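To: structure desk
From: M.T.
Subject: fold request, one chain
Message: Could you run this one when you get a chance? Sequence is below, nothing fancy, just the single chain.
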Amino acid sequence: RLWMRPLSEAFIDGYLNDAGDSVLQSVGCYHLEGRGAQLMTRIEGDFFTILGMPLLPVLQFLRDQGILAR
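Reply: Done. Structure tokens follow.
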């Protein structure tokens, strides 16, 4: 879960200008791993899942299937 802070129009304009077209490559138009962290006041949950890929459960599944070493 993500909690977004109140954003001024000036901040949003600056954020979008700095991000350029790359903002269109991100779900929700933010890059949490970069400047997008400034948009949030609180983050709850697994970082990788928030980015769009539940990496830790996927890695465990691959280990359980013998695809990755234990």
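Reply (cont.): The chain has one domain: 2-64. Let me know if you need anything else for the meeting.
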